Amino acid sequence: DFGTSFLNGESAMRLILERMPATLEIATLAMLLSLLLGVPLGIYAGLYPNGLGARSVMASSILGFSLPNFWVGLMLIMVFAVMLGWLPAGGRGPTQSFGPIELSVFTWAGLKHVLLPATTIAVAKCALIIRVTRAATRECLPQDYIKFARAKGLKEKRVLGVHLLKNILIPIITIGGLEYGQIIAFAVVTETVFSWPGMGKLLIDSIVTLDRPVVVAYLMLTVLLLALLNLVVDLLYTVLDPRVRLGGAK
Description:
This protein has 250 residues and is mainly α. It has helices spanning 12-47, 52-66, 69-83, 108-140, 144-151, 156-185, 188-193, 199-208, 212-240, 242-249, and strands spanning 96-98, 101-103.
């Protein structure tokens, strides 16, 4: 029992749990975008490190690291909402109910509201995934199992899709899990820029109004989520790498 909100007179934890689906929505979509773009681009940059395309990818990743999150969000609003008018500038839009959970990604109008905040977060995370994937690819390529697979005459798609990808997934899963937790815990700036009704926006409003029970409940829940994500990442290690299971058995 974390008490009641000074401002609303409701349970502090219930207020946060009501906002959690909105934060998880943009966090999950942002992480999926980062992985779907970052892993292929990182592998490409690792396979052809001296090519023009690979150099362009790495230069773009540096740019993604360097741009402030709030500035990226404002530029996306200016281009896609103000100048082109393709996407809404803020708010969550219509949602679809799944029991007590309200999600907007399953409606077209709601998905249009999610795209800009998710893309804003994904820019920096994708840059990180690209660099991690490239480093892991460069490390794995000289290994004997890659050379042996090619010497056996396996197709390059199988060599890259099975022998290479499975071995570089460990660092990608590690970084992806940690960054996913960071997005959930610290999506405050993005939610504020886009007026997204998530936990981060609630946290800012609670800090401004000195609503301490909500702030404390948010911090405790965030710590719990980060601990659970670390546990999930550790369990995924055993699925991806048999050596982890064998080492534990011994």
